[in-house]
Amino acid sequence: MKIDIDGTVLGNGRIVVATEKHIKKYYFNEKQFKEIKDCVEMMKTFHGDLFVDMFEKDFLCVTMNRINFYINKGDYRLDIKNYLKLYKVFGDKKCKRDLTPRNLLYRKSDSKFFIIDWDNVEYFNNKEECYKFYKDQLCDYRWSEWYELDRSEIEKIFQEEWKLISS
């Protein structure tokens, strides 16, 4: 593979390639490598069976095993419980960004969940910032539209689940 880039790479500057056995993400913006590596390390901690390798040269390549998956369309509470497991692992120090319904996949063979799109990290200075991040991410319009629930219903479920994990 050879890619010539003429200009400035913006954002993560990534290309995603799927093979029969793997998903490879190639990143070209060197300014993003440190944050991507940190997020990949988080992923390895959370999903050791999903991560394969990471290679850096003029680009950063993250390779993951490919899984046969489905996206949950039926249970908001189950989805946010799975996202809130990030809090159990990483506490109120950091989390991956973009906690959307589409970034949570379930393996067809056993319904094990996988959180995808580990490109960016959100860091917190205190518990309040952490709480606000999770609430904003897990109660926003994407969830309301996905599950056809109103915001007050989503916020109520979120508060119940947050109370269980943060007490």
Portion of residues within helices: 25-40%
Report the biggest beta sheet as strand number plus sense, adding barrel if it closes.
Answer: 4 strands, antiparallel
State the end-to-end distance: 50 Å
Q: Could you state the oligomeric state of the chains shown?
A: single chain
Describe this structure in words.
- The protein has 167 residues and is of the alpha+beta class.
- It is globular and about 50 Å long.
- 38% of the residues lie in helices and 23% in strands.
- The relative contact order is 0.14.
- Helix 2 (76-90) packs parallel to helix 5.
- The chain has helices at 33-46, 76-90, 127-138, 141-147, 151-166; strands spanning 14-18, 22-27, 51-56, 60-65, 69-71, 94-96, 104-107, 113-115, 121-123.
- The protein starts with 13 loop residues before the first strand and ends with a helix.
- The strands form 3 sheets. It has a 4-stranded antiparallel sheet, covered by helices on one side.
- The chain contains 5 helices and 9 strands.
Describe the secondary-structure layout:
Layout: E1 14-18, E2 22-27, H1 33-46, E3 51-56, E4 60-65, E5 69-71, H2 76-90, E6 94-96, E7 104-107, E8 113-115, E9 121-123, H3 127-138, H4 141-147, H5 151-166
Antiparallel strand pairs: 1-2, 2-4, 3-4, 5-7, 6-9, 7-8
Helix pairs in contact: 2-5
